[in-house]
Design brief:
The chain is built from 13 helices and twelve strands. With about 375 residues, it is of the alpha/beta class. The chain has two domains: about 240 residues, Rossmann fold; about 70 residues, no CATH class. About 15% of the residues have low confidence.
Length: about 375
């Protein structure tokens, strides 16, 4: 690979940064404060930029059960939370495991009937009684839909479900969420194709079992990562994304995720319109708020055909909008191309919510300083 003079300068600068600081990505989380209240377990309010008084219905990010809530705040410059907060929206995060409590070990019933409803009520109360706009990725989107169906009286303004599979026949759900596929330079392209064919069909990333095996043998740490870094040393944004994704996948939970997968997708019940949770039937047709569904064109975990049934499964919703964006399972939410695709769809959706529910300003909150 021959670099241009500019590429060589960029590579030298990135190498210096790596030697001096050990990384290129700015992994500082967006500043947030806990929301007080009996039902506000694990709810945090993001601090707005200095001088900004957020307006409009509040936004609550719902992480997938048993997965890090950091998916919405992967790194500065490629953080959906940062993007939404800086747009002047009052934004919150449900951190399912803020202090070792419930989130990582909670089952489907606790998420649908306890954790998420409590968070929704706490956010609405904190925002002056306004209804809440939910944003859920992967199983977070599925749980948001189930909570709305289980209790139509919850103060929910709308739901944006990103890469949320409902038809298990069309979805491949690994034990671990996959790592986005990263391009391999030409000298290794043949090896990459052979490896992909030998282990599994493309899942929008590395399968969980293979990922574990790679980490156990140390190949990723001692061979693949350094080579990948050298091959893209002139591209700081690419390398920063690798670092952020690596940190995210290091904290994925396996056992709890598999348990919730089984509960959600046993007998493909969701594709039929609902499922039983703790002896009570939850029907998706009872969702009575507008829904935005976004599927990733390259997503093997939640392919387009596994998300598309939401159009027919939500007859009670006043509006169901379906969009297809570029990227795999994590890429569609927070990949480098998501800024111009998924985030643009979400911006328009949240703007429409502000029009429907009004601009009501909330009290001035502490400014972002980090």
């Amino acid at each position: 690979m021959i670099l241009s003079p500019r590429g060589a300068r960029d590579a030298a600068g990135n190498a210096f940064q790596l030697v001096r600081h050990g990384r290129l990505a700015d992994l500082r989380p967006m500043p947030a404060d806990p929301v007080e209240g009996g039902a506000a377990r694990g709810v945090r309010r993001y601090r707005p930029p200095e001088g900004v008084v957020p307006a409009g219905p509040p936004v609550l990010f719902v992480p997938p059960p048993a997965a890090p809530a950091r998916c919405y705040d992967l790194r500065r410059g490629c953080s959906l939370a940062e993007h939404v907060v800086r747009a002047g929206r009052r934004s919150y995060l449900l951190d399912g495991d803020p202090a070792g409590r419930a989130g990582q070990d909670a089952g489907l019933r606790e998420w649908v009937r306890d954790l998420l409803p409590g968070a929704i009520r706490a956010v609405s109360r904190d925002a002056g009684g306004q209804p809440v706009q939910l944003v859920g990725w992967s199983l977070g989107g599925v749980v948001a839909l189930l909570a709305a169906a289980d209790d139509p009286g919850l103060p929910i303004a709308s739901i944006a479900a990103i890469a949320a599979p409902v038809d298990v026949r069309a979805a491949r759900l690994p034990a671990r969420l996959p790592v986005p596929r990263l391009p391999v330079p030409n000298p290794w392209a043949g090896l990459a194709r052979a490896a992909a064919g030998a282990f599994a069909p493309p899942l929008g990333g590395v399968p969980g079992a293979l990922l574990k095996r790679i980490r156990r043998t140390g190949i990723d740490a001692h061979l693949l990562r350094p080579y990948r870094t050298l091959a893209h040393l002139d591209n700081a944004d690419f390398l920063a994304q690798i670092e952020a994704v690596d940190q995210f996948t290091d904290h994925l939970a396996g056992r709890a995720a598999r348990r919730i997968h089984r509960a959600l997708f046993q007998d493909n019940a969701l594709a039929g319109g609902g499922l039983d949770i703790d002896g009570r039937r939850v029907e998706l047709r009872r969702v009575g708020v507008p829904v935005l569904a976004i599927a990733g064109r390259g997503d093997g975990v939640a392919p387009v055909r596994s998300v598309l049934p939401l159009i027919r499964l939500l007859p009670g919703a006043p509006k169901v909008r379906f969009e297809v964006a570029s990227g795999g399972h994590l890429d569609v939410l927070t990949g480098r191309s998501a800024r111009a695709t998924t985030w643009a769809h979400l911006d328009r959706w949240l703007d429409e919510g502000t029009v429907r529910h009004g601009i009501r300003r909330q009290r001035r909150a502490p400014a972002v300083t980090g």
